[in-house]
Amino acid sequence: MPYILHVNLFNTFSSIICSQLLQQRKLEEFRKNKVREYTDSDSDCDEYDQEDRGLVLRRNLAVVLVRFIRTGVKCRLLRVSLRTLRILSRDKKVLGPLVTDSALVTLAKLAGLTTRDDSDEASDPDSDFYDNIIASLAEAKVLQCHADEDEGDAEASKQNEECSAFDEETESDISNANSGDLDSISWFGSHRTSINEMHRGGIHHKVLERGRRDRRESKMEGEEEEEDGESGEEAKRKEAMKVLCNVVYNSTWAQERFSALRLMCGLIERLSSSVSCSSSSSVQFYELRLMFLITALRPELSTQLQQEGGVSILTAALESCLEVQWKDQYECVLDPAAPPISLEASQRIIEILKILFNITYSTHRQEPSEDDAALYRHLVASLRPCLLRKCALSDDTDELQGHTVNLLSALPLQCLDVLLMVPLEPHSEQCQGVNMDCVHTLLTFMERRLELGDKIKEKLTPILNLLTESCRAHRETRCYIRKHILPPLTDVSHRPEEGSTVKSRLIRLMTHLDTDVKHCAADLIFVLCKENVRRFVKYTGYGNAAGLLATRGLLGGHGSRTSSSDAQYSSDSDSDTEEYRQVKDRINPVTGRVEAEQSDPMEGMTEEEKEEEAKRLIMLFNKLSRENIIQPVGVDSEGRLVPMFGLSETALTEEGGSESENDGEAEEGEKN
User: Fold this and answer.
1) I need a surface site. Which of 66, 277, 314, 373 has the fewest CB within 10 A?
2) What separation in angstroms does the CA of 571 have from each of 467, 525, 527, 532, 574?
């Protein structure tokens, strides 16, 4: 459909509605005053312009288009109307006419989500007003086409052919919808001149600008040609689905009514039928987008989708997009010579992964049943191509792997072992005879996110958590990752956080301002050190390790591991390199490096001067403590930081208790 027809339709609607609003305002003012004759004046127009004229215009345009669509218009005109609604639905202030039950059911019916036909036209007090606007549209376009013919321009005559076809569809649709409507005919005759003047330049409106295409469509070449080749039914469903996506995203009320009208059932049926088809439809992407939005915004619909077999349906859709061929129960064929994942397929896969995350994120800490465990293992096996295959665009590859990581971190941990159960190939990464291709991809993905340093909390914490849990659960995974992140220490002349290695970047994150990022980075290194405090301090330095040790009550160094850990680590020792053993005694445990020898600051001072300096320092500390600038703390018996006054009181109580016990024993001895 030429874009100029879209703009002409919008401008025509705008002009007619503007005229209607002006006339209706005059009539209401006349009925209110009932004294003076109401005539056109500049003051009236100025008063009207003070209001948000454009907002009122767009709202009424949305109402007209919804009622116009409901009349059963032809395919091309319907498509242009839906495109206009899609642009209008981007504005939250215009959504009022689009979030009614009637409008939602109308759009859902066009999208193929329901067959019901709810209509509130009879209860609409402005029914005649909007019907009159629709009835006048056909004649207004005829007048515009006649004016273009009089000019004799060749380009105008070409456009006239499109307008004629446009008029035939419009007149036939309006005649079917408003046959016998005498009020409409009389209204049209009395306002013929004003409409004609508007089209001749009496009233001007800002031309509708083309909206920004979504990311999926902007990457595709020849989009208009592909859309023109679509069937009318498919194009109609896709445009209606786009409008529903905008409305559901921008309106909380529309989300609630989507649930109340049980449109989720129709969406599930549509997705199930599209998965069973051999050829994928371009509408499927928008079906998945709508399902993602509604499951993200309405938790009860996410639960409903899970209960109605959403995991198996979406897993089948994922396999269809990836064209998976199974070699074994949990092993799919990966052909190195296979072409990259296409743009459309990668976008559909990403939407599927996001929906699966919405309906499975609460299963991570749960113990799945036998049937659920088999279902999740099958899903994890289907995710292996998402990690190992490339997309047509590198950005899509990174995004696809990111959503795969999010989903893997949401699934039960015991179901992830299928990623390691794949037989070794000639060029596979391996550790102790176990296939590490997926682990290597995850490690590379983490390194890439560390280098970018963009949106650290959002993009880095999921992969850090996934690697940490995997290292706890699988000894081979921990061994493989440790070789890449924590190699044996050789050079200890620099601080552990200095440098560009993966270890240095992770240690720098251990003192990050964001608590979640700090704990995730520290947990990974702590697990790689088998949750051994001495080894952890050795690789990171006590200054960097203090945060995690304080959180877990390990500052006192009592005990090598946290009591809450369920991990089973091997008893192998951490062997030191020859270079490390030579300088081990000169390493500063706080900084984690060999410090240059410093001169004694009290060298040359007498004993009296040293005592005076010590008193002065004590007075300064006391002053800072009294003014609450600093708060002295110490380590209690459980290895946690506590204020010094609380520590002293506890110590005194313990001492007092021990003294009383000793006194009691002495008295008993005297009696004996």
Assistant:
1) 277
2) 21, 18, 14, 11, 10
Of 434, 460, 486, the residue at which a domain comes to its end is 460
Burial of 539 (0-12, 13-18, 19+ CB in 10 A): buried
Measure the CA–CA gap between 402 and 156, rounded to whole angstroms.
Answer: 52
Burial class (CB in 10 A: 0-12, 13-18, 19+), 1: middle
Q: What is the DSSP string of 568-605?
A: -------PPPHHHHHHGGGEETTTTEEPPP---TTTT-
Same domain? For 37 and 176 the reply is: yes
For residues 345 and 439, state if they share a domain.
yes
Task: Spell 124-147 as b/e; 16+ CB within 10 A means b.
Answer: beeeebbbbbbbbbbbbbbebbee
At residue 181, φ and ψ (nearest 5 deg) are: -85, 90
Q: Is residue 590 part of a domain?
A: no
Structure tokens at 615: 């008193």
For 114-154, how does the pLDDT look when each residue is reduced to its tens digit (9 = 90+)?
887 654 444 454 455 555 555 555 555 555 555 555 555 54
Of all residues in the chain, what percent carry a pLDDT higher than 90? 41
Describe the chain by its helix, strand, coil percentages, rounded to 5. Answer: 65, 5, 30
Give burial (CB, 10 Å; 0-12/13-18/19+) of 538: buried
Any domain includes 393: yes
Query: Token pair of 225, please?
Result: 């040609």
Q: Which domain holds residue 92?
A: 3-207
- The CA distance from 550 to 553, in Å, is 5
| d(C-alpha 50, C-alpha 44), whole Å | 10
Q: Count the residues in the chain.
A: 672
What are the structure tokens assigned to 553, written together?
A: 């009550």
Domain end among 460, 495, 515: 460
* Domain match, 329 and 268 both: yes
Is the domain of 400 the same as that of 386? Answer: yes
pLDDT on residue 121: 46
DSSP string for residues in 608-624? HHHHHHHHHHHHHHHHH
| Closest of 526, 555, 545, 550 to residue 591, by C-alpha | 545
Per-residue pLDDT for 155 more than 80? no
Q: Looking at the domain assignment, is residue 369 inside a domain?
A: yes
Please tell me the least confidently modeled range out of 222-226, 241-245, 277-281.
Answer: 222-226
User: How crowded is the C-beta side of 112, counted as CA atoms within 13 Å?
Assistant: 21
Q: 311 with 448, same domain? A: yes
Long-range contacts of 278-284, Cβ-Cβ distance < 8 Å, separation of 24 or more: 280/320, 280/321, 280/344, 280/345, 280/348, 281/234, 282/226, 282/230, 282/234, 282/238, 282/344, 283/234, 283/237, 283/238, 283/241, 284/317, 284/348
Task: For the beta carbon of residue 152, count every other beta carbon within 10 angstroms.
Answer: 8
| pTM for the structure as a whole | 0.74
Q: Looking at the structure, tell me whether residues 32 and 104 fall in a common domain.
A: yes
Q: In the 8-state DSSP scheme, what is residue 513?
A: S
Closest CA relative to residue 70, chosen from 62, 352, 180: 62
Residue 663 has pLDDT above 50, yes or no: no
Contact 441, 391 (CB under 8 A): no
Beta carbons within 10 angstroms of residue 290's beta carbon = 26
Q: What is the pLDDT of residues 575-630, one digit of tens each?
A: 778 777 878 778 888 888 887 777 778 888 899 989 999 999 999 988 888 888 88
Q: Flag whether 646 is in a domain.
A: yes
Same domain flag for 19 and 124? yes
C-alpha 632, offset from chain centre = 43
Considering just the CA atoms, what is the radius of gyration of the chain in Å?
A: 36
